[in-house]
Write the structure tokens for this entry.
Amino acid sequence: DGGITQSPKYLFRKEGQNVTLSCEQNLNHDAMYWYRQDPGQGLRLIYYSQIVNDFQKGDIAEGYSVSREKKESFPLTVTSAQKNPTAFYLCASSIDSGSRETQYFGPGTRLLVL
Amino acid sequence: DAKTTQPNSMESNEEEPVHLPCNHSTISGTDYIHWYRQLPSQGPEYVIHGLTSNVNNRMASLAIAEDRKSSTLILHRATLRDAAVYYCILRPGGSYIPTFGRGTSLIVHP
């Protein structure tokens, strides 16, 4: 089945630790996105990539980093510089970033700080 | 950025139709109107989208005002599985990355 997978479902981070969230898609989509969602809030864009080896910052990129070495994969690293990382992280993809294109979302990773 | 305004929450009874409104008074001619919904602890899923004409699919209908400054998502017969947060977003023509506001939390009563 085609779709987007995110792992792990839950992730715990210690103070000062970097952690990496996985996002993989087998939809052959060019565009991929990372969003952050806090309780009761909407989704805020962290980073997006329109093509392999290229990515741009979203609204809240500070404390996060990404890579896009393969079309299928767009991992997100939450660095120690992100002081309040506890949130629900959602990865999405679309055929491209055109205005008609639908975004497909993964099931999310919930990050908690110990 | 083109913005949308939605009520924070709405309630409905099971088996009844639901009309979820969205205002987008600053919409421009090339902006597509997209609707997504998010079930608890899940990622959002696409519901429907349109530009000018009303649209129907197996999940819902989208009614777009003639001046395009508002739209309504219609669920013809609400079920308990339709309880979710519904997001109305605009996607301008060309390459643009959508942002999701708080949406409307739909409560469905049995």
About this structure: DSSP finds no helices and nine strands in chain B. The longest strand of chain B covers residues 84-91. The interface with chain A takes residues 30-32, 34, 36, 41-46, 49, 87, 91-103 of chain B (CB under 8 Å). Chain B has a mean pLDDT of 91.
